[in-house]
Amino acid sequence: MRALGLDIGSKRIGVAISDPLGLIAFPHSCIYHKNEESDAEEIYSLAKSREAETIVIGIPYSLDGSLGPQAKTVEKFYQFMKNYGDLPVVTWDERFSTADAINRIKETGMTKIKDKSIIDATAAAIILQSYLDSQA
């Protein structure tokens, strides 16, 4: 089961894709926000072209589990996405995924990360991998 993972930020959407068996997540790309419909169209087009069967959206819950302002924005987009197309769309807790992505990138020797889309796609892969691991 191939899945597409999303890390939704205020300017960009990090995208990750799994292998065909749904075991390993890989950073894929970044989508720059336009509007809900354009973003959804681009996501569904990518999901279909990569033969994804599920879309996983990371929700940035607060430490206490509540929905802060960004989480509410992502939740609204999730509601839009699940009614937009014909693929299942699920949410997943993404607390600390961006910080984890930055740490992992720095472990590779990159000390200055100028291209923020690398962080976003890596965070999406972390979210997606966590989801995939829970399905095993």
Description of the molecule:
The protein is of the alpha/beta class. Helix content is 45%, strand content 24%. The protein has a single domain (3-135), classed as YqgF/RNase H-like domain (Nucleotidyltransferase, domain 5), CATH 3.30.420.140. It has a five-stranded mixed β-sheet, with helices on both faces. The longest helix has 20 residues, at 116-135.
How would a crystallographer describe the biggest sheet?
5 strands, mixed
Question: Structural class, judged by helices and strands?
Answer: alpha/beta
* Total DSSP E strands: 5
Q: Approximately what portion of the residues adopt beta-strand conformation?
A: 15-25%
* Topology-level CATH name: Nucleotidyltransferase, domain 5
| Adjacency order of strands in the biggest sheet | 3-2-1-4-5
Instruction: Give the integer mean of the pLDDT values.
Output: 91
CATH level 1 name: Alpha Beta
- Write down the secondary-structure element order: EEEHEHEHH
| Level-2 CATH architecture | 2-Layer Sandwich
The shape, in one word, is globular
Rounded Rg: 14 Å
Number of structural units classed as domains: 1
